[in-house]
Amino acid sequence: MRPPALSRAAAGASRLLTPRAAWTRPASTTSSSITTLTTTRRAQPNLQPTTASRARAYHASTHPPPPPPFSPTETAILSAAYTHVPTHGFSQTSLALGARSAGYLDISTNLLPDGVFSLIKYHLLTHRELLSSTPLPPTSTLSAKVEHLTFTRLLANAPVLPHLQSALAIMAQPSYIPTSLAELAVLADEILYLAGDVSVDPTWYTKRASLSAIYAASELFMTNDTSAGFRDTRAFLARRLGEAEELGGAVRSVGEWVGFNAKAGVNVLRSWGAPI
Amino acid sequence: MAARTLLRRALPSMRSSSSLRQVPFSSSTLLQSRAASSSSSSSAIPDYAIPDPSRPTHFGYETVTEAEKIERVAGVFTSVAESYDRMNDLMSFGWHRIWKDHFVASLNPGFSPLTSGPDPRAPQHILDIAGGTGDIGFRMLHTAHTLNGNPDVRVTISDINPAMLTVGKQRSTLLPASQQAALSFVEANAEDLTKTKPLSSTSTTSETNPHTSAIPSNSIDLYTVAFGIRNFSNIPAALREAHRVLKPGGVFACLEFSKVDKHPLFNTLYKSWSFGAIPLIGQLVAGDRDSYQYLVESIERFPSQEAFRDMIVDAGFVVGGDGFEDLTGGVAAIHKGMKPRV
């Protein structure tokens, strides 16, 4: 004679052909029904979404890297053009000379959808991606790492510094502002991620916002900096980061004080018999 | 008047002007291309890209054969040639000039920086397909010769329709002599640029003028087609022919009406203008309702930005970014592709 549990399991196995039926059957607490469900789940077609084909709105370090922003042909033209930027600036001339040295024609620069702005985007993207290979001092605080990374990124502007103002002017053109701001936000996020920031509270946003503002200000300062090794820019950056930290500390302290007093007030009211 | 009689003959079935019936249309040369391309190898020319006079295609909302479409498009443009420029202004409130200016300025023909040493500039050859009355060709010459100071730029204006070319040739007499010298007019079918013949002053049919020459492969820097490609009978074939004549690194650029689907409200306004007013303006100004009815219907039948971009990629071009740029919310769109270096 067959025990009832086994027969139920056998019935579950026969449902393998129609796996959906196994999911919809009423849940029972016997251990055999759990076995049934596990077997059935194994027989299910892969329910995992095919993430490769779907665009994600977020990024995680465990995911495969996103597709490169430029196609190989675009990269060939842009990387060749970028070598002409120190001489000719972010201009159509650099692009045409780059296309020529990549073996294309003067007219081939039309491949780039945004023309000169594509070259600026290339500058921003390549230097942001280079940040991940920056060696970090191992035993330093988060803020020291942030300062180090931000200054490293600023130094990458040095070869094209005489043309940085014109690049900023192009980035500020109305049709390019969204892309430019998005790139700035991604840069701030990258710096904080590489520095090891793991905050999961509202400071996640405030840190990124303040770093974006500080980076933009420092970059503007840098365009007029003539000191050796950009000492003044580094000092400027350190002052701004310090201020942000002080301000953040002050805001936190005020919040703590307000919270403490509010709680104390409520407790005083309760001690007087208020029904709170 | 003679031209109009010709059109009446070419358009045997007169459609009632207000009917906007949508012919269910599954076997167009445009749409079957996606399905076929995945199975065919990339080097061989797929079937849909080989012109076949008996294959069905669309003419406005009607289904006709490719040969018939060539004939009827010829009829339409022979009929509208003389009023073409005036009508463009009326239908688009003059806005087509802005689009064309932007198109040419963004292409920046003739731009060629000088470097130290020997002059590195290579002469540029621009082929303006369906260039008829010269709107794009003249702007190209102005940008290249005057703005970019590069006199080494030649423009060949090609059209299948000698009536349109004649109008262009007349208009070109107002250009500076140096620009006229850099300009040539040829009569050719864009699907087969191996048989082109120069525009002759006397009207001759193709039988009596045997001097046809081919546009050689890998000879063109910039191939442009503005508001013309939707009239082609076989667009994949024309794209492959463009790919053939372009040099590696050469650019295919197309300005064409497109879809406004991203802006539903504006789309409603635009559709009611194009279906309500444009045939009427055509009737009042050019005395020819059917040609303009065809115009708006052919815009409606043209593939969307993304679909046309995929056709360009399918023909062997590489595109950057999205591969297209919307103008005026998508009423028109610029598509660009580059022939890759192999």
Automatic annotation (TrEMBL), chain A:
Subcellular location per the Swiss-Prot or TrEMBL entry: Mitochondrion
Biased composition, class Polar residues, residue ranges: 41-53
A GO CC term assigned to this protein in UniProt: mitochondrial inner membrane
Ranges of residues in domain COQ9 C-terminal: 177-247
Pathway recorded for this protein: Cofactor biosynthesis; ubiquinone biosynthesis
Keywords, alphabetical: Lipid-binding, Mitochondrion, Transit peptide, Ubiquinone, Ubiquinone biosynthesis
Gene Ontology biological-process entries: ubiquinone biosynthetic process
Sequence segments annotated as region (Disordered): 21-73
Pfam family for this entry, one: COQ9
GO molecular-function term, one example from the UniProt record: lipid binding
Sequence ranges of Low complexity compositional bias: 28-40
Family the entry assigns: Belongs to the COQ9 family.
Role of this protein: Membrane-associated protein that warps the membrane surface to access and bind aromatic isoprenes with high specificity, including ubiquinone (CoQ) isoprene intermediates and presents them directly to Coq7, therefore facilitating the Coq7-mediated hydroxylase step. Participates in the biosynthesis of coenzyme Q, also named ubiquinone, an essential lipid-soluble electron transporter for aerobic cellular respiration.
Protein name, entry field: Ubiquinone biosynthesis protein
TrEMBL record, chain B:
GO biological processes: methylation
Enzyme class at the top of the EC tree: transferase
This protein's record includes keyword Transferase: yes
Superkingdom of origin organism: Eukaryota
Name of the protein in question: 2-methoxy-6-polyprenyl-1,4-benzoquinol methylase, mitochondrial
EC number: 2.1.1.201
Binding-site residues, S-adenosyl-L-methionine: 133, 159, 189-190
Family that this chain belongs to: Belongs to the methyltransferase superfamily. LaeA methyltransferase family.
CC per GO annotation: extrinsic component of mitochondrial inner membrane
Species classification: Eukaryota, Fungi, Dikarya, Ascomycota, Pezizomycotina
Species per Swiss-Prot/TrEMBL record: Cercophora scortea
